[in-house]
């Protein structure tokens, strides 16, 4: 089943066109990754899907319903959570309070309690630091918190923007293992990641974006094996 379908999407920042007729699909249960250089439009696409930006034209269908231009709160309620670049935790609130905010729109208190357990199982460090102010966490711990907060909204589709940015290699490995576990437990993932090799190694499919356009797409294993993609995005390895 196609969970998310984007078709001929145009997005502008003032007079500058950031996305130029982008089309892509994310099927239920997949990890789909977007790769490309800084400024290519990857983060803009996630922000538009999650309602932080409004498209000028084009289609965004989620579970066969149009969400293009809808308010971000309604999109979260529909089942899409967005972990933005830079994590953006509420630094003057505790870890627990940040997680509680993730479940703010939910009314199913028994299920919320189960999801706290699920988050703490995925991220044991968050349980250890649940009473700690979020601003005092390390970068990796803040990334875990941002992801945990998004999971508390009980999303069907999780949008992840640069989850490995600024993290030590060992923490990057941990974060990607957790992303795979979240996916195995039933959450579909659309991933933007500068570390293209790692992203393609866990993804089902990938899209390469250049200057606001999709230029190549296909199974992640094929993109990872492509000499053109290796030279442009994988450091020639």
Give me some keywords for this one.
single chain; 237 residues; alpha/beta; 10 helices; 10 strands; 38% helix
How would you sum up this structure, described in words?
The protein contains 10 helices and 10 strands. With 237 residues, it is α/β, with parallel strands linked by helices. It has a domain at 2-86 and 156-233: Rossmann fold (3-Layer(aba) Sandwich). Strand 4 (57-62) and strand 5 form a beta hairpin. Helix 3 (95-102) packs parallel to helix 6. The model has no long low-confidence stretch (mean pLDDT 91).
What series of H and E elements makes up the topology?
A: EEEHEEHEHHHHEHEHEEHH
Largest sheet: 6 strands, mixed
- Please list the strands of the largest sheet in the order they lie side by side: 6-7-8-3-9-10
Shape: globular
Strand fraction band? 25-35%
How many alpha or pi helices? 10
Gyration radius from CA atoms, angstroms: 17 Å
Could you tell me how far the N terminus lies from the C terminus, measured between alpha carbons in angstroms?
34 Å
CATH class of the domain at 2-86 and 156-233: Alpha Beta
CATH architecture of the domain at 2-86 and 156-233: 3-Layer(aba) Sandwich
Mean pLDDT: 91
Helix coverage percent of residues?
Answer: 25-40%
State the fourth-level CATH superfamily of the domain at 2-86 and 156-233. P-loop containing nucleotide triphosphate hydrolases
Unreliable segments of 5+ consecutive residues: none
Structural class: alpha/beta
Q: Predict the CATH topology of the domain at 2-86 and 156-233.
A: Rossmann fold
Number of strands: 10
């Amino acid at each position: 089943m196609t969970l998310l379908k984007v078709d001929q999407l145009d997005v502008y920042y003032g007079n500058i066109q950031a996305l130029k007729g982008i089309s892509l699909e994310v099927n239920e249960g997949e990890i789909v990754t977007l790769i490309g250089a800084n400024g290519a439009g990857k983060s803009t696409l996630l922000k538009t899907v999650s309602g932080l930006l409004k498209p000028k034209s084009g289609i965004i269908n989620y579970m066969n319903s149009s969400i293009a231009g809808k308010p971000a709160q309604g999109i979260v309620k529909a089942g899409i959570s967005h972990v933005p670049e830079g994590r953006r935790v509420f630094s003057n609130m505790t870890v627990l309070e940040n997680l509680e905010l993730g479940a703010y729109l939910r009314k199913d208190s028994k299920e919320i309690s189960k999801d706290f357990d699920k988050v703490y199982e995925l991220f044991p460090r968050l349980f250890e630091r649940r009473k700690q102010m979020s601003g005092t966490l390390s970068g990796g711990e803040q990334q875990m918190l941002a992801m945990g907060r998004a999971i508390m909204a009980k999303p069907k589709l999780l949008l992840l923007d640069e989850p490995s940015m600024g993290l030590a290699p060992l923490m990057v490995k941990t974060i990607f293992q957790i992303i795979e576990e979240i996916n195995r437990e039933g959450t579909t993932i659309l991933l933007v990641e500068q570390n293209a090799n790692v992203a393609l190694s866990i993804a089902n499919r990938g899209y390469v974006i250049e200057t606001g356009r999709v230029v190549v797409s296909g199974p992640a294993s094929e993109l990872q094996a492509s000499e053109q993609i290796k030279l442009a995005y994988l450091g020639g390895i």
